[in-house]
# Entry
Amino acid sequence: MDFQKVRNEVGNYVFILPAVVLFFIFSLYPFFKVFQLSVTDWNGINPQMNYVGLANFKDLLTDNPVFWLSMRNALNITVLALTLQNLLALFLAFLCDRDIRGGNIYRVIFYLPPVLSGIVVGLIWNWIYDGNYGLLNHFLEFIGLGDLTRAWLADANTALLAVAVIHMWKGFGWGFVILLAGLQSIPRELYEAARVDGANSWVVFKKITCPLMIPVFILVSILTILGTMQIFDIIISTTGGGPGYHTEVPITRILQTMIGASKFGYACAMGVVFGFVLLAISMVQIRVSKMMRQV
Amino acid sequence: MNNTFKKIFIKSFVLLFFLAGCVGQSGRNAETVTIWHWMSDRDDAFNELAKRYTEETGVNVKFDLYAPSEIYSQRVKGAIQTNTLPDIFGVLGENQDFASFIQSGYVADLTEALNAPMDGATWKEAFFEKALAVNEFKEGNPHGVKPGIYGLPLDVSTIRMIYNKNLYAKAGLDPNAPPKTWEEFMEHSRILKAKGLPGFVSGFGEIWMLDALASNWAMNLMGPEKVFATYEGKVPYTDRDWIKIFALFKEMADEGVLVDGTVTMVNKAAEQTFANERATYAFNGSWCVNVYKGMNPDLDYAAFLPPLISKARPMKIWGGAGSSFVIHEASPRKEAAIAFLKWLTSDAQQVYLAESTLNLPANKNAVKEISPILSQFAGNMDHVVHPNVYPVHEKPEVREAFDKGIQSILIGEKTPEELAAEVQKVKGKALKR
# Structure
């Protein structure tokens, strides 16, 4: 056995050892710990935890309508974010991709909302949506639509939409930056060649931009889904999940179960199920995207 | 840098990196009593008192603030797992959580220290009985905790109705005569509305406030025995008295008594609304005196008991220890921690805390110098109850369905009867477990 060779091989692994150890401690261990806790009735305080088998999962899947309602709420916000938010991001990315005056300023402005704290954004929008003295109601009255004024976050018909608008306002900047980077990576020669061949803007978009942007669209949509389904801070700082359960989302349910009801085991089961739902959605989306690429 | 030095440096760095995370209690200054709290409004006062204590005794005391309270609760629960609880901390949450802390051996029994003679009396005698009761587990308590007193109150809170005297006068109502009964409350509210003046606000987005108001009215209408019988499952929520309680909220919603947006408003926003005279009534705790002073020092308001639903029984309100500290059972500085808490809850320090934070002191002797508005919050202490001292407690999932359901009534989505049936369904499921 060549000792020097073994030493070199081991030496190589030593370099990645700290990263592997950190990955095990901070990623893998918590991941498996959640699975372990999800089959217990642990209350988060007492060192003793009893094994309850799949009882938490059974209850969650068959007798917890509020959790599934919260999932539906998150899905509704996600659908809005996937469409309206990303269309806005794409539109603005197109505009900024051209040589317009002050383009860099627009880029900074569009990127500002995502870097703000969700809690701060929620508090600002609380002020905009306020039923009595809110900016939105003031504006509606100003343009003669006073009949539409309401407490936007406290109205069952508008609360979820109002929260979704905040989320989209805060989130479109991420999509904008990624889509703009994607647009700028498309070789200009392709556009020039298409123009020489007489292609109009729509044909250029359909035949060049869209196909080349598919990997970027996939990335943006996956990030949108994962980010939106896990929406939390905006809900906490605006509606707290109310009125009733109209703006409850999975993370607020998990937190309420964990902290409010001291059911850590059950909350972990909720986390596991939620994780699988996210995984399933992402896999479906990747499959659909692959099919689109083949078309 | 030669190779040997490089190797020693890298190895030391790696070793220190991994050991740093393993530093537990042994890593702390052995002479310093550490206290964790969540009370950002009292942090300056606590630090000033810590400084004074060190000057007087030579013992270092360090207050660590973790706010808001949700973050604090997570911090404490995390510290349990890593065995890094401080010498003194507070337990937030339900009574059953407090019981779990005690049964798991994280909280010291202070009964002996409280009953020990001190300056001709006992330490226990300095406190309001109601404030101490929140931290006491009696014989036969539902959690099976060994009887004893496990925490020390720092201040007393009561939750009451408040009204704006200025807006009352504007409406042509007597600014010194708040409503005593539900009928009067609704009548006054109609007058306010007719004059274009705002109505009632509270932080109903924080559902425990709905719980507090609803349970005040329930205790008044049906008495504690029937309320507790409901918690035990002997009386259903579909009972007509419970439906009547739910109907009160419907009446408020139907008559437009509530300020728009109240149903999802957090208490801080509700306090801002009342302080800016955008509401005539509020339902809030005695801590609001400090909050309103900061927001609008000229606000002219007074406190009163929630309007009576039934004259057959007195109005019971939530109150007792506003915030309490416990001592870590395994703390190596347990005696020093007890000595500090004795000092912190003694007359002089309690007067300082009451003056600087405008909270009601837990020490009876410190109440003499408080402001008139605080005196109103301190009145009728005989009528004060606290969920922690109830002989039986409602399940969290039932309470959530109850409170969220009231939100649904307030937005006109459910009727009192529908809510009663829904809560009873959740109750039935909870009883089967």
Chain B touches chain A at residues 14, 70, 73-74, 77, 80, 93-94, 96-97, 100-101, 103-104, 106, 198, 205-207, 259-266, 269, 273, 278, 396-397, 400, 404-405, 407-408, 410-411, 413-414, 429 (CB under 8 Å). The longest helix of chain B spans residues 207-232.
